[in-house]
UniProtKB/TrEMBL annotation:
Its cofactor is pyridoxal 5'-phosphate. This is Acetylornithine aminotransferase. Binds 1 pyridoxal phosphate per subunit. It is found in: Cytoplasm. It holds the Pfam family Aminotran_3. It catalyses: N(2)-acetyl-L-ornithine + 2-oxoglutarate = N-acetyl-L-glutamate 5-semialdehyde + L-glutamate.
Length: 404
């Protein structure tokens, strides 16, 4: 039996390790707590708040939408679904979209598409290739696709039908395909988020595209975290000049309103037929309006270019500020693209979360040793400089302590 976890919120199930800071309101890349303390938001609600907080164009649009219609059900047409789907197809070059409510739901739908794609070809036990370091969500199927044993612990038996290989190793991919002829799809994050900001290399992505074409497999790129402009292109795979067959999206698409989407290319677009899949909330008018407004405002404000430029400035400031620590090995690497950056340390870095908050900065620490920055795409050059000005001395002081 597990004892209750002591908490100031005894009726909230304690599934998160939370800092004892209660947040009250935000504006742009700044958030205030209930004591009136201000924080610079380097976390963006975990890559969710694309437009920052209380965006002056998003707020009135959502207020108008809430007063008009929040939810109706999928028994009727929701014109905003077609509007958002058309925009997503335009920016991705893909063919159609299924709407849901979160990242794991988008991945769950992608996995169902992969299985049905197999069944449609007479393969009654289709398998999906997944990767070391992967994170795809916390449902039973998506945690099974996830690599982290800490996320599996206590929830077995895992869903069968996943074959795991190392990232960026095309020989391992080809060997796995030979050993597992039932594989119908290759499923990966274009840039791993929770796994520590680990990019799939451009040549690797291009090789996977060729392999999938050659073997009639679906290339499924989880862009739940790295998509929607975060890297400076609409989607991270566009840096490799390839297209996926299936692309789950979520986090940044609704600027904080829960939303998920699976964008499919022609080979995957008609796998699902009426009755095969659905969700009550998926595609509701409020979420669709949030998606449409997010993409529209991103274009109006040039946020792809901003993410690329301010992200490069932030990365350079961190690399410069931590040059000594990089040379000595305390900082293993500063990596990532656009406004999805990771600073890998040579030791567990979880303690930095509270220290950063104390210094007025919100960050996250993932994969134990990687400080992750995924701020709003409206971040200014000045705010990027402020993030570096707070974070660099913190990391220096942290690494100056004896290594545990
Ligand atoms: C966050 C995340 C998920 C899960 O999304 P939820 O909305 O938390 O279910 C899946 N894949 C990736 C790459 C993510 O970053």
């Amino acid at each position: 039996m597990n004892a209750p976890v002591p908490s100031s919120e005894p009726q909230v199930m304690q599934t998160y390790g939370r800092l004892p800071i209660a947040l009250s309101h935000g504006k742009g890349c700044w958030v205030w707590d209930t004591n009136g303390r201000r924080y610079l938001d380097g976390l963006g609600g975990i890559a969710v708040n694309t437009l920052g907080h209380a965006h002056p164009k998003l707020v009135p649009a959502l207020q108008e939408q809430i007063a008009r219609l929040i939810h109706t059900s999928n028994y009727y047409l929701v014109p905003l679904q077609q509007q958002l789907a058309a925009k997503l197809c335009e920016i991705s070059g893909l063919a159609n979209v299924f709407f849901c409510n979160s990242g794991l739901e988008a991945n769950e739908a992608a996995l169902k598409i992969a299985r049905k794609f197999g069944h449609d070809r007479g393969n009654s036990s289709p398998e999906v290739m997944v990767f070391e370091g992967a994170f795809h969500g916390r449902s039973i199927a998506t945690l099974s696709a996830t690599a982290n044993p800490k996320i599996h612990a206590g929830f077995g038996p895992l869903v069968p039908g996943f074959v795991r290989v190392p990232l960026n190793d095309i020989a391992a991919v080809e060997a796995a395909l030979k050993a597992h002829p039932n594989i119908t799809a290759i499923f990966l994050e274009t840039i791993q988020g929770e796994g520590g900001v680990n990019p799939a290399r451009i040549e690797f992505l291009q090789a996977l595209r060729r392999v999938c074409d050659q073997h009639d497999l679906l290339l499924m790129l989880d862009e739940v975290q790295c998509g929607i402009g975060r890297t400076g292109k609409w989607f991270a795979h566009q840096w490799a000049g390839i297209q996926p067959d299936v692309m789950p999206l979520a986090k940044g698409l609704g600027s904080g309103v829960p939303i998920g989407a699976v964008v499919c290319g022609p080979r995957a677009a008609h796998v699902m037929q009426p009755g095969n899949h659905g969700t009550t909330f998926g595609g509701n008018p409020l979420a669709m309006r949030a998606g449409v407004e997010t993409l529209t405002i991103m274009v109006e404000e040039g946020l792809l270019a901003n993410a690329a430029q301010v992200g490069a400035e932030l990365k350079a400031a961190l690399q410069q500020g931590l040059a000594g620590e990089i040379a000595s090995g305390g900082v293993v690497e500063v990596r990532g693209q656009g406004l999805m950056l990771g600073i890998e340390l040579d030791r567990p870095a979880g303690a930095l979360l509270a220290q950063a908050a104390e210094a007025g900065l919100m960050i996250s620490v993932t994969a134990d040793r990687v400080i992750r920055l995924v701020p709003a795409l409206i971040l200014s050059s000045d705010e990027a400089a402020q993030i570096a000005a707070i974070l660099v001395p913190l990391v220096k002081a942290f690494l100056a302590q004896p290594k545990p």
